[in-house]
Write a structure and sequence with these properties.
- The chain is of the alpha+beta class.
- Helix content is 55%, strand content 19%.
- It has 2 domains: 2-54 and 258-408, no CATH class; 60-254, no CATH class.
- It has helices at residues 2-9, 17-58, 74-82, 116-122, 148-154, 194-199, 205-212, 231-241, 251-254, 256-294, 296-304, 309-353, 374-390, 393-400, 404-408, and strands spanning 62-65, 87-102, 105-114, 129-131, 143-147, 161-172, 175-189, 200-204, 220-225, 247-250.
- The longest helix is centred in the last third of the chain and has 45 residues, at 309-353.
- The model has no long low-confidence stretch (mean pLDDT 80).
């Protein structure tokens, strides 16, 4: 009986349509809040996924390097790392800062010397080549692969010559000069992350060793794991197994600030957008308080006919909960639909407005990704339903405590 009467009371009497209007506004408010929460958290999840994929596509899950200078005998170190069942691939690298010069244009960059075949096993750069192939880097040929943004800044194309200068001095008859070498551009890559596209160039490992005068040494060894989320534990295990002084690091240390910032932003956005649902739930309190006032005579009649205070309580809790359930369901439906189509809708809006929402020279990621997670939908739905249920308690208790004689005094 309580359920039937509560559903019937959801619509106010004809003489008081204002209560029905407030109920509709409360439903829509909850729906908008739930929809916004789902869409925003899905976009934040997408950013985190893309950030992790693009950073780890060029960085490494873990690295082994010397505390100072080069790392001689890296082959034995690589073999020892491969003995760990968690390691999928190993690749040496030489890394340092450099300056590129082309027709008077200068640009600072990070230079990385790699073995093309091994590099393709630990990074995704080979799959993101715009021009040429990573395998075009050959020892002794002094070829270079540039990020797309730095190539655009210097105005170079495949086949052009660029001067690479490093902050190490060479003594010549003309005095102390920075060491430099002329390289031929053999290709360009585009990761889609400005940090790498603008600030990284690749050369062959042997050329980097000759340029930095490392002999057979390298800066370190890059490791790719089967499960990147086990990187901290694997890094500790490898560090314990190595003899000598080595620096073993993993991606959670090297890029911790990026992912910590994303998690913090997700938490803050969740709290802020939850206030929308909270305001809508507060409207449910207003709606039910007015409904109780409007239904005083009905409550008195029900009490006179034998209904208990608990029955009256449940009647108005059903009425308020229905607003929360309908609003939540509508919000989940709209939120899921938008979250699944964000990557399609944003380019359409950019084309219609003529504005680029995420400029690649400002943001790490220039598109708007989305990743819908069931756990987020469930958490948001439970929050909305809980707030909707809690908002019914005070008005329902007020209705249950109403005395029949007091309600019928002026009828």
């Amino acid at each position: 009986m309580e359920l039937w009467i509560g559903l019937r009371y959801t619509r106010a009497k004809r003489r008081n349509h204002f209560i029905s209007f407030i109920s509709l506004v409360s439903m829509l408010g909850i729906a908008v809040g739930v929809m916004a929460l789902i869409v925003v958290l899905s976009v934040m999840n997408g950013f985190e996924r893309e950030l992790r994929a693009r950073i780890l596509g060029m960085a490494s899950h873990a690295t082994i390097s010397a505390f100072e200078g080069g790392l001689p005998g890296w082959q034995a170190l690589a073999e020892k790392a491969r003995a760990n069942s968690e390691i999928e691939a190993v690749a040496p690298y030489v890394q340092g800062e450099a300056m590129l010069r082309m027709s008077g244009a200068l640009s600072g960059t990070l230079i990385r010397g790699v073995l093309p075949e091994a590099e393709n096993t630990v990074s995704a750069v080979g799959a993101h080549m715009k021009e040429g192939r990573l395998e075009d880097l050959m020892a002794g040929e002094y070829r270079i692969v540039l990020g797309s943004e730095i190539a655009r800044a210097l105005g170079v194309r495949r086949g052009d010559k660029v001067d690479l200068m490093i902050p190490q001095a060479s003594v010549t008859p003309a005095g102390v000069l920075p060491r430099f070498r002329r390289f031929t551009v053999s290709g360009t890559f585009e990761i889609g992350m400005y940090e790498f596209d603008r600030g990284l160039v690749l050369i062959h490992l042997a050329d980097a060793q000759a340029l930095y005068r490392l002999g057979d040494g390298v800066t370190g060894v890059r490791l790719k794991l089967h499960d990147l989320f086990r990187a901290p534990r694997v890094a500790r295990d490898i560090a314990d197994s190595l003899d000598g002084l080595y620096y073993v690091s993993d991606w959670t240390r090297q890029h911790a600030n990026f992912f910590r910032a994303v998690r913090t932003e997700k938490m803050v956005m969740f709290i802020i957008l939850s206030l929308i649902v909270g305001v809508a739930a507060f409207n449910i309190v207003s709606t039910l308080v007015m409904a109780v006032q409007d239904k005083q005579a009905d409550i008195a009649i029900l009490r006179t006919l034998g209904s208990s205070p608990r029955s009256i309580l449940w009647i108005f809790m059903v009425q308020g909960s229905l607003i929360g359930v309908v609003g939540t369901a509508l919000g989940v439906l709209l939120g899921v639909l938008l979250a699944l189509n964000v990557e399609t809708l944003v380019p359409l809006l950019e084309a219609l407005t003529g504005n680029e929402f995420l400029s690649p020279d400002v943001y790490y990621i220039s598109d708007l990704p989305s990743e819908l997670k069931l756990s987020d939908v469930v958490r948001i739905s439970l929050l909305s339903l809980s707030l909707g249920l809690l908002s019914t308690i005070y008005p329902a208790l007020r209705a249950a405590r109403l005395q029949p004689a007091e309600a019928l005094r002026y009828e």
